[in-house]
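Reviewers of the previous submission asked for a worked example of the structure-prediction workflow described in the proposal, so we include one complete record here. The input consisted solely of the amino acid sequence. No template or homolog information was supplied to the procedure at any stage.
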Amino acid sequence: MWSGPGSRHIEAAALHASLTNEAVNISLATVYNTLRDFERAGSIRRTAVASERVWFDTDTGDHQHFYIEAESRLIDLPSGWQPHYPMPSPPDGYRITRIDTVVHWEPLF
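From that input alone, the workflow returned the following structure tokens.
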């Protein structure tokens, strides 16, 4: 399974466009601020792929992502996937709380 039930990757601009199409009068800044409020509350999680691409993920559990650049699409890796490289030890007084991995895909042709 690539994404759990109800799991969704949301871009603020796409959400704003969807709301505008439904005749909801709301500014893009309000959409961003609301998504950040949900993030601070722990209801969604921010995933940045590049400095200009940010998704808000409704699945706040530990999981990794595939990014299909040609489609500007973010999808979840299968559950249980773990990176296959040695993890660095954190500095004294710190602990690793999560690891964010984004695997970039592009078409072969």
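DSSP finds two helices and six strands in the chain. We consider this example representative of the routine output the project will generate in years two and three.
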